[in-house]
Predict the structure of Glutamate dehydrogenase.
Amino acid sequence: MSSAADSEVETFMHGLIKRNPGEEEFHQAVREVTESLMPFILENPKYKQAQILERLTEPDRIIIFRVTWEDDEGNFRANRAWRVQFNNSIGPYKGGLRFHPSVTQSILKFLGFEQIFKNSLTGLPMGGAKGGSNFNPKGKSDNEVMRFCHSMMIELHRHIGEDTDVPAGDIGVGGREISYLFGQYKRLSNRFVGTLTGKGLSFGGSLVRTEATGYGCVYFCENMLNRIGDSIKGKTVCISGSGNVAIYAVEKATQLGAKVVTVSDSGGFVHDPDGIDAEKLAFLKDLKEVRRGRISEYAEKFSVASFHADSRPWSIPCEVALPCATQNDIELDDAKMLLANGCFVVAEGANMPTRLDAIEAFRKASVLFGPAKAANAGGVAVSGLEQSQNALRLQWSREEVDNKLQEIMEDIHAKCVKYGADDKGNVDYVNGANLAGFAKIAEAMLAYGAV
Ligand SMILES: NC(=O)C1=CN([C@@H]2O[C@H](COP(=O)(O)OP(=O)(O)OC[C@H]3O[C@@H](n4cnc5c(N)ncnc54)[C@H](OP(=O)(O)O)[C@@H]3O)[C@@H](O)[C@H]2O)C=CC1
Ligand SMILES: O=C(O)CCC(=O)C(=O)O
């Protein structure tokens, strides 16, 4: 980056931090995008003149509300919830809901901001949003989760709609939660429309939505490898997380011939040197999707595997790393360890799982680095396809949706290459994803004038 661009980035970030004090995750997400975009904005004064970056980093609105619910002992409990409607320049607001005790406005703003670019990359007409609550579903009964979701929707339903804002799942929000939320939405609005995605298959859900983020991440990884004449087949893969994204990343990587040797949760990671085969994956799905148990049980069941409490999997040698748990999961030291052990491909299944200095280390080492906006866009892409099916009142076959998902991931990869390749043909996927995502949104914002 030129020194002029450098100093513009610092001036811009100074103002942003002043306007959004203490929101570190949001600052981190905006800095990464700003560093990619600033040289382009300086070359194209129309974006600066129209204050596109300033407008893009200010949410259209944030709705904050209290959710009161009753636990199984009859106590009243209260949580805080948010919906950050960030930008609807290219379509209705779209993005997941996160239920986790760590949720703050900063986290939801970083997620909503990233979602604007990700959704643009899919080529589908979706704006960016995110929401959630500091409610902790862990250890709660189904009835408690239901009461929380029903109470949350009493407020949320006023702000969403199939052409306004379409929430979906994220950490702590899966099929169970979406069902409770959708049931209450349907009752309150007296309309059966696709205002949430990730629904059950018997009431408007799309085939392959459950698998889409994990599968899409592996498809993106395969696209990056194919471009250099390689493939994921035969590669050793480390995955973090053991939730929705991680499980289906394990499944697709294994189907394509890779050996996945780690998964994790907030208690630690398991290392299975033999790889997670179909039988072990079935156990993992039952453990996490049905019994909601801890990952340490995997090592109790399969003696070849070891459990490492309170640690992340990045010390285990691998060629491909797929962080699929949460933000800031790969620190600089983890990146150094991965590089020293021969890792040369990283695709982000989670949102912002890699710290900025760790990304820099990967870039310097010419790692094939697929940023979240591109690599995990498969989930929201199939959510977009769910909206299309709902609007058409049709359900497409598994094969049809999976083919469309593969096409969308290939298309996102091609856009990253178009916008991120240098003269020698090396691709900076971070710059590519940011620039390609930005181009479409910025054109729409310019066309609207001062709105
Ligand atoms: N679901 C989707 O379609 C999409 C999800 N994403 C992103 O992918 C990531 C994972 O989401 P998803 O799989 O849906 O969520 P899940 O709730 O299904 O799984 C989350 C996983 O991450 C672990 N985890 C969560 N927080 C922490 C933490 N602070 N430290 C260590 N581990 C943690 C969880 O462990 P534990 O159970 O112990 O908490 C669990 O294994 C998130 O970053 C999400 O934003 C991105 C695109 C789409
Ligand atoms: O499916 C969706 O609408 C949102 C998925 C999501 O939360 C994400 O892409 O981070």
